[in-house]
Each structure stands twice: as C-alpha cells, then as structure tokens.
Amino acid sequence: MNDPQYFDFINSYLLFQEIPFSATEKVVREMHRILRPGGVFNIYDFPVGDPISAESRYMFEMDHRDNGEPWSIELMDSDFDGLLNDAGFEVTPGPRQFLVVKTWHCRKPE
Description:
By secondary structure, the chain is of the alpha+beta class. It has one domain: 3-Layer(aba) Sandwich (Rossmann fold), CATH 3.40.50.150. It has helices at about 20-35, 55-65, 70-75, 80-85; strands spanning about 5-15, 35-45, 90-95, 100-105. α1 (about 20-35) links the parallel β1 and β2. The mean pLDDT is about 90.
C-alpha cells in the first residue's frame, strides 16, 4: 500500500486542527501522492480563511486554550488554501457546515 496513486477518494474530518502546521504540509503532500489522477481529497475542518466574527474568534481561542486544541489557532491563522494549491490540488470550497466546520473538495488533476 506504499504505492503512489493508490486511492480514488480520501476523507479527513477535523484532522488538521489536531496536528502542528509543520505536519499539515507533509500530510497534504502525502494525500496528493497517494491519490490516483482524478482522485478527490475531501476535507472537513475549522473554517480556515473565512472571515469570522470577534465572538467566534474568541470561542476558537478559548477552545484552543482550555479544550486541549494546541494547534487550532495555528491552523486558523495559516494559508491553508495556498498550501492545498501548492501541493497540486484543484481546490473547490465546499459548503460551510455549522459554525466550526468548513469543507474543501480537492481534486488531483488527471
């Protein structure tokens, strides 16, 4: 299973807020490597890159500080979309889910 281009579809749910951003780049590049051309990487995670209200930002910062989310603010302040594009994905933002979840549909070009 270490072969590149093995999967047609990969889904992640609230993964990237749980890992350091330095690891995020490695994970995204690995997802691109193991997808077949035309494969899709769907991401459901914190609403990175979206404007958020001061109240929502406060909620995320409290969650970061008091709820064992040491890397969530690092993700929120990152250029996650740029990282996905730099890895080679064609990125289509999906619908926003609830207050705290955003979706991305990332396709590996054929």
